[in-house]
Task: structure prediction
Amino acid sequence: MSDDDQPTPVRSDRPSTGRRISFWVGLGVLLAGLGLLAYVAWELWGTNIIAHKNQRALTHEVQKEWASEAGCSKFCPKGSIIALIRIPKFGKKYVIPVLEGATEDNLNKGAFAHYSNTAAAGEKGNFAVAGHRITHGEPLRHMPDLRPGNEVIVETRTDTYTYVLDTNPNDLIISFTGLWVLDAVPHNPSSNSPAVNPDPDSKKLITLTTCSELFHTDNRMIAFGHLVKDVKKTKLHPVDP
Result:
């Protein structure tokens, strides 16, 4: 057979199987990366936008109820708005609703969540609440800025209670399993950590709990305080819309 009789090679424009696989794998990685970025953006910013709206709505809802002498006072069902918390250290506009029950749903609404097995606000025992430090409204984002002597004002339907912090939250980081902080009179089992309350005669306490770091951690940052003033309400505190 002469050279003229040899078949002419046909050039294919179709990509090889390996190239097609590489393309789809690369596309999948890109989409996964974009999805991860979108998720992070939602967690860091989206949840805060929704939670801040919830905070304002819940605050105005409970103030309207209290003005009509309605609303929950004691033995409230889970999810009920039981109080408003103000921390002057965090600014004049800082007001966060407190929902009954330390559930993820309550926390994700941007609220403080009250541990149901602890005392009610102003009562003998330990009024213990939790709040997110990052995402979902971040009510305790600036917890490390608190110091002994800072006030935590808890408003209920009938009273305004003023607590004063006794401990620096930066000095007490515990595992999430450290349930002793929720006791009526907490006793710190560690001799290397600060005492709960320098005044042993004070039996009306408050406990603030949040994550010890801005990102995921199983450790908790704790601050303790005690009641110094109980004022029967005559009018509601104004809240900016």
Remarks:
- Residues 36 and 42 are 10 Å apart (CA to CA).
- The domain at 42-232 is CATH 2.40.260.10 (Sortase; Chain: A;).
